[in-house]
Please model this.
Amino acid sequence: MSSKTKAPRKSKSPRAGGIVLFTAAVLAAGVFGLSALRAEANGVQSAPPPLPVSAIEVSYDENATIDEQFPGLVTARRESALGFERGGRIDALLVDVGDRVESGQELARLDTRALRAQVAAADAQTAEAAAQTALARDTENRQETLLARGHISPQRFDEVVTSTRAAEARQRAAAAAADALRVQLDLAVMEAPFDGVVTARYADEGAIAAPGQPILDLVEAGALEVRIGLPVEVGPVSSP
Model:
């Protein structure tokens, strides 16, 4: 009887197994590293491109100055609200808003008929006082002659001289009263105190004007002035 002999089994080599494990580890590390690089690339934003800028050259100047601006107001040098010192009925208004006038030009006037009658009466009283004064002087001259001849006493002559002085005083008072009324006549005419423009008119002919009531506003046209508000720290060192 023949016997079959079994061939011995080949055992796996430990070296081959180690190579396989090393290869797998390298592949895993590569895959993990590639994933990490992709994740980092996705998380980092790309930097924007640089913007162009303009450059200027700076130079130092010891005499450099700084201009500053401040608010101001340009106004007329003179503004007047014109009225009458003495009240009365307005007889005429010769200008209107916007009219240019010259210094001394007549602008308005009051009704002065009653005032002129008072002036006439004062002139009559002045004439009467002048006649009384002339008579008193003639009497004084005659009494002086009689005194020299001894026909009257010195006391009588002194009384005549006193009467003459009183008559002269009454004449001066009457003349002063007439002059005061003439001043009122002059004040009944409104004249422009300076060259300017009429900017307002508050009444018309026939209205009764009270003493001092504004009738016209006049603004000087030829001269202007500027009013500027400056801070406290600037004002003392500024110059026009």
Remarks:
- Strands lie at 72-76, 79-83, 88-93, 100-101, 106-110, 189-191, 196-201, 208-209, 214-220, 224-228.
